[in-house]
Amino acid sequence: MPGEFPTVRPRRLRGSERLRTLVRETRLHPASLVLPLFVVPGRGKAEAVASMPGVRRWSVDRVGEEANRAFEAGVRSVILFGIPEGKDPTGTHAWREDGVVQAALAALRKDVPEMTLITDVCLCEYTDHGHCGVLHGEDVANDPTLELLAREAVSHARAGADVVAPSDMMDGRVGAIRRALDQAGFERTPILSYAVKYASGFYGPFRDAAESTPAFGDRRSYQMDPANGREALRELEQDLAEGADLVMVKPALPNLDVIAAVRAACHVPVAAYQVSGEYAMIKAAAERGWLDEERVVDETLTAIHRAGADLILTYFAESAARRCAWR
Ligand code: PBG
Questions:
Q1: pLDDT in tens, 136-148
Q2: How far is ligand 1, taken at its centre, from the CA of residue 59, in Å?
Q3: To test ligand 1's pocket by mutation, which of 206, 253, 313 has the most ligand atoms within 8 angstroms of CB?
């Protein structure tokens, strides 16, 4: 009504940082952030990744430095990706006892004993063709791949992984990995399933870092079509039925609706992966002075958390943890 003052004034609670802090609905906690780490063969290495400024590929003897910095900032978990010594059609380096991830697990357990060590379980870094499983002709053969993924997961558990995280998107891999872990005596090792993983353009920089670009074709015959939301729930149900202990949605920012739907549809912890392209996009704009990096990192991570992700995998984990510890 003209001349009348509004009785409802949401701005009352926005008037000072004290009040904003009091009524903030979503808070990031450093322990909810998971830092991805790339590990390469050799010694003394900290190689820059061109498309991911600030991210490095560490050799086993130095990866503890980076993990320790993150730990001091409050980060309590890392996820490891290995770039192996050699590649072949079936990715045999993935389950070698002296493999790069296996060695990194031992080093990190010693250097940062309290850090939770998660490993990405997939074959694309280990196969010479760069696909996430073995090939029959040009097709990625589902069932023969399951046994190899299971072997890789058991090898990671044996080397000290606290959690294994299959990212390959083969049908039935959670069940196959669960059975193999149980048979090998690792019935207490949880599986974080990349349950909802879209075939995304946002993985580009990661594939540079991990040297895992497919030699031909793409991953659309196994990763999900970004157009599909209902199918995400179908993948979720299947992975839960096969024994997934935690589930992930990836990439994060383009799929906030899916994160919210997954959060509502299950009762296990939900993770979301702010992937390499999401990182690169923010870094590139910030470098040009077009975006304020800290603001948009905090805003995107908060939005991903608000949508329903309990855990967030992010290359910004260390710097974001330093800030959110105080908010
Ligand atoms: C392996 C894997 C990928 C990512 C995580 N695990 C790449 C892919 O599927 O091509 C992407 C992570 C990122 O982009 O940061 N399959």
A1: 999 999 999 999 9
A2: 20
A3: 206
pLDDT tens-digit profile of 276-319?
Answer: 999 999 999 999 999 999 999 999 999 999 999 999 999 999 99
pTM greater than 0.90: yes
Q: Give CA–CA dist 44/204, Å, rounded.
A: 26
pLDDT attached to residue 1: 58
Half-sphere exposure of 233 (CA within 13 A, CB side): 11
Its sign, for the CA torsion 209, 35, 247, 183, is positive
Provide the token pair at 16: 């000072």
In what helix (H) or strand (E) does residue 80 lie, and over which residues does it extend? strand 77-82
Contact in structure between 105 and 159 (CB atoms under 8 Å): yes
301 C-alpha to center of ligand 1: Å? 19
Ordered by start, the domain boundaries in the chain are 27-326
Report, at the CATH architecture level, how domain 27-326 is classified: Alpha-Beta Barrel (3.20)
- Active-site residue set: 197, 250
Take atom 10 of ligand 1 and give the residue whose Cα is closest. Answer: 203
